[in-house]
Amino acid sequence: MTFAPPMTPADCDLTDFAFMPLDVARLRDSELASNETPEACWAAVLLWAASWHQIPAASIPNDDKWIAKQAGYALRGKIDKAWSDVRPGAMRGWVECSDGRLYHSVVAEKARDAWQSKTEQRYRTEVARVKKHNQRHGTNHTTPEYSEWLSIGRPAGHHLSVPGDTAPKGEDNNGDKPSKGQREGQGQGDYSVTDVTGDAAPPPEIAPPPPTPSAGSALTPGEIIFGYGLPLLTSAGTPEKQARSFLGGLRKRPGGDEAVVNALRECLKAKPLQPLEWLAAALPPPGGTGSAEKPNKQEALEQRNRAVADEWAGSPESKKGEVYEAV
Q: How far apart are CA 127 and CA 144, in angstroms?
């Protein structure tokens, strides 16, 4: 038996899309709504929703236990007896493809549109970063066309390798002295674009864990934080301005840059779906343990009053010392 090819790309990942488009009129006038029971309709919608966050999106494993559980008809490893009556209607529209997974054509149509929008937005972000790099450093790096960018694996982040680029003299590449803005922690998310020609292997979309400053790296802690943190956050959907502000706030938390670099390293290894929330939870909040914030006048007065009270309520030995000193 010949199966059709998968209906969405193998790397179609919409797990960071909280909302799934629902064509209201199409669903209302469908045979599912007119011919199936309400239980079957609800189970079908639950399966659509489950497939939206599968990889590839719009697909589900060809496993009846898994399907029954997602549809709400399995508990503690046992399938509800009612599932046999609900299943035909709930599985309306699902077909097996050549990768062994089940796909729904309507959900796949919405997933392809969402994936297209996601990749186009990522491309625009990369183009804007290279443009900003050129403006800051006086370089003339070019970016590939959208189709070429797709063909080389959608490279993103630090470093971006673009076929045909050149590295003009005076650029802040590896071994060069960073500019003032970089030393101050500004703009570290820009690319240090390297010279790549021919059929070089595309770099990963997420950069490898950053080196520690003590390992002899030429990068400053600020460059590491912004150079690795910005691509990590923006690739997960965080706007660049918000990502910069968030990373700058992390540097003010207890532990400083060293704690942020370590947290970034662990986050890159863990690959959470929401890296911003992961980093926020990984580092102690401002004013927590290890905070060196100076108390305000009211807090200082209260601390002094508590100290005096503790002194008067001290042990007899301490009181003797006070009397001896008074005499």
A: 9
Q: Can you tell me which residue has the tokens 């926020």? A: 280
pLDDT at 239 over 70: yes
| Residue 232, pLDDT score | 84
pLDDT at 113: 92
Given a cut of 90, is residue 252 above it in pLDDT? no
**Please, which residues have CB within 8 angstroms of residue 183's CB and are 6 or more apart in sequence?**
220, 222
Number of residues written out for the chain: 327
144 SS3 class: coil
Average pLDDT for the chain: 74
Buried residues in 190-215 as b, exposed as e (16+ CB within 10 A): bbbbbebeeeeebbeebbeebeebee
CA-nearest of 178, 175, 198, 200 to 190 is 178
Distance of alpha carbon 278 from alpha carbon 54, whole angstroms: 21
CB atoms under 10 Å from CB of 103, counted, come to 24
By the 8 A CB rule, do 114 and 88 touch? no
pTM of this structure: 0.47
